[in-house]
Specification:
Elements: H1 12-30, H2 32-35, H3 39-56, E1 65-66, E2 72-73, H4 77-80, H5 84-101, H6 105-117, H7 121-138, H8 141-158, H9 165-179, H10 188-197, H11 201-226, H12 235-245, H13 257-276, H14 283-300, H15 308-313, H16 316-334, H17 337-349, H18 353-370, H19 373-386, H20 394-405, H21 415-426, H22 433-458
Amino acid sequence: MPTEAQAHDVPLSVTLLFAALLVGLIVCLALEEKLHAKKSLIAGAFALVGLLLASALDLLPFGPLVNVFGESLLIPAYVQGVDWGVIAIILGSSIFVDVTSRSGLFTWIAIRLTKASGGDPLRLLWLYGLMTVAFSAVLNNVTAMIIVGSLTAVSLERLKRREKLLGFLLLEGLLTNVGGLLTLISSVPNIIVGTTAGISFVRFFLVAGPYVVVATAATLWLGARSFGIKGLTSEVERAEAAALVGGFDENDGIESRSFFIVGAAMTVAFILVIATTSVLPAVSSLGMGFVALAFAAAMLVRFKADVDQFYKTVDWDLLGFFVALFTFINVIEHAHVLALIGHGLAAVIGLGDVVGSGLMLVSAAAFSSVTDNIPLAAMLSKILANMGTANDDPLWWSVIFGANLGGNLTPIGSASTLVAVTIIHKHGLPMSFGAFVKVAAPYALLQLALATVYVLVFLR
């Protein structure tokens, strides 16, 4: 049966016009810093132009929608194309994490791990690396990098190991994108591709988990060798490090013991409910977006008279960007741009299961390294869905792995690597664009090679 976007004929010239708009959007997002414009404004401008052209050319389904109860709903065409479930997940999760962080939970975990290392640099690298992956899996990558990066600087300063800070921060930045592969809600590309493919939270974790374990171990092993991070060998060194670590107090950031306990309990509950949303009565129909918003509201009760302070910290630019992006993607879908790209994608897939999946992963990674991986994930997931791709097809995982790991090739490839470079500069350490690419390339290529083998060998 033809899809809604295929139900009307569109001249090739019109399709190429909207394809040019898509290329323009991608180029402008890649040059975001040079344009001195926010993502939301860039995507919003292209969405507005796209909507005007689509209206003039009669490409959009204007008119009322009929729901399952037979009721006619007057919903504007530019609202229909937005995936509001994704918007709700991002908004709810961001507020929940922000409020929970006020309990001191995340700082407590980090300092406890620092004490567990005994001041040994190599052990500390592994513990902080694992913490980065864990935080990236349950929080968003940017928040994970900010928390871990700031605590790393404090730990190494107190341990008098500041010369190791560059290596720690760079590896943590790279590991945020590895940890971002672990769960369905770890990164925005995961949410977009996973929900489009119909991949459950539990299945996503079970498939991505083995790769994340291997990639994390390989990254930390290579990093320890490259940056000369070694363990303590003498008893004198261990005693001195232990004395320094003894000065850390994990309770410094805890203002209210009761709120700390509530924050810990709610975090565990949040993860469990998100993981079982698809099988919970009533909740399964409302989706993960409802769960994220519900937990955010529950945590906000603690600050009921000052909730506006948390609304101010929400990344509204990111949310506005998503709304505009979904709107624009919906427009170019009706202009048959995705169908045109799909024909090219079909040719790649036609090269065979192995070659097609491999090329898909490498292409997604290359694209993600120079511009935002969110448009890539949204576009490719739409194309694969329109092609009727089964949800157990390795092509979905090629997009997921490529979109996430490509961000490690350049400092602008992902928001978390950009934050890592920002923290590096904040502490007076040199790290140019070219230097980042030179240092990070071996790690990114290793991670992509492991992902390619994993998809082609173990997911077929």
